[in-house]
Specification:
single chain, alpha/beta, Histidine-containing Protein, Chain: A, five-stranded mixed β-sheet, 6 helices, 21 strands, 20% helix
């Protein structure tokens, strides 16, 4: 929000220059104002365009640079008694006005026509044109009109485009969702059926051309009778359905917001697992993390398989679904049993089979679910 004119600007992380590799292709070294390495883009003042540095050699007496322009014949530049580098940006610069459409807020810039360095400080709307605001080294502010392909689509036109797209892909949900557009940003509000739909709407809009970003205010429709405990149980039952390929899972749900972390064997975990969890009725939001491990790297794998086989043959554990993994130097029992007695029997058998190794019992009792 501008303190002088009260103009508001909604920014997204991809529009700011937080950090970048030194050899990033879109950033250019300016001769005399940058340290130079092979592979850098390099611009000489008053030249037509930058070139790619193929080789660089410098001593106190001489500097030799070989530059390639558009893959054509290499050009060799030799400078006697080179002056010290007056570096203003270690990462390089955006060359303006040519790179105005690619410039991020916070980027160091070099204006080739004015021969001045500066920094990109904002984006402003001037009438029907979007402009990049730059603060030059002499303290002056320069506004550069962005090229046509970088201009925001008029609000009413973009709103129609977004609504038509949503009607095609989400015909059952679009009637409950409102769309508002401002300066290329799409704002969603209303109700959706699941976290999965909520995410899909946002992803669809973010992937549309000429959309700067999406601000999502939609909420998931509350399911009658779906308490946090029931939502947790639904997620646990889903994870248990994948057998021993999914293990060391933890599920917490508070006020409809779920947090799920788990491990799985590489190549054996369903690719759509997160989406399937997001479809659980009543879930309002989801924080999901997964670690994938090669099955051959699990320690004591054979013992885990033997324990599972032993449980399957034990008449006292009839109907129980128990899987065993070895995590953090201990055996982990997960799954579902029918009574506290079965849970205790499983633990006693595990202790007997593993001797002195620690055992953690995370078995759930079906009657308590």
């Amino acid at each position: 929000m501008c303190e002088r004119c009260s103009a508001a600007f909604v920014g997204f992380s991809n529009e700011f220059a937080f950090s970048r590799p030194i050899d990033a292709g879109d950033y250019t070294a300016v001769y005399g104002y940058s340290r130079i390495s092979p592979g850098n883009w390099l611009y000489f003042k008053e030249s037509v365009k930058p070139g790619k540095v193929k080789s660089y050699f410098r001593t106190n007496e001489q500097e030799i640079i070989v530059v390639s322009y558009d893959g054509g014949q290499d050009m060799k530049f030799v400078f006697d008694h080179p002056a010290p580098v007056r570096e203003k940006s270690a990462e390089g610069y955006r060359l303006l006005p040519a790179q105005s459409a690619q410039t991020l807020l916070g980027d160091n810039i070099y204006h080739t026509l004015r021969d001045k360095f500066g920094i990109a400080v904002g984006l402003v709307k001037d009438g029907d044109k979007d402009k990049l605001a730059t603060l030059l080294e002499d303290g002056s502010v320069l506004f550069i009109t962005l090229p046509e392909q970088a201009q925001n689509i008029p609000n009413d036109k973009l709103s129609d485009i977004v609504l038509n797209k949503l009607r095609q892909l989400f015909p059952d949900d679009v009637s409950r969702v409102s769309v508002t557009v401002g300066q290329g940003v799409v704002y969603l509000d209303g109700l959706v059926r699941s976290v999965m739909i909520k995410r899909s709407l946002r992803a669809c809009i973010n992937n549309m051309p000429r959309v700067r970003g999406c601000v999502d205010f939609t909420k998931v429709i509350a399911e009658p009778g779906m308490t946090d405990k029931r939502i947790e149980n639904e997620i646990y039952m889903l994870l248990e359905s994948f057998g021993r390929n999914v293990f060391d899972y933890k599920v917490e749900v508070a006020n409809g917001k779920g947090s799920v972390s788990l491990c799985c064997f590489e190549g054996l975990c369903p690719k759509d697992l997160e989406n399937r969890i997001a479809e659980v009725p009543g879930l309002q939001d989801l924080n999901f993390s997964m670690v994938s491990l090669p099955e051959r790297e699990m320690r004591n794998r054979e013992t885990c398989l033997e324990m599972e086989h032993s449980y399957s043959l034990n008449s006292l554990l009839q109907g129980a679904k128990i899987k065993v993994s070895f995590v953090d130097d201990k055996y982990l029992l997960e799954g579902r049993v029918h009574s506290a007695f079965q849970k205790q029997i499983a633990l006693v058998n595990a202790v007997k089979m593993t001797l002195s190794t620690a055992v953690e019992n995370r078995l759930r009792v079906a009657g308590n679910l």
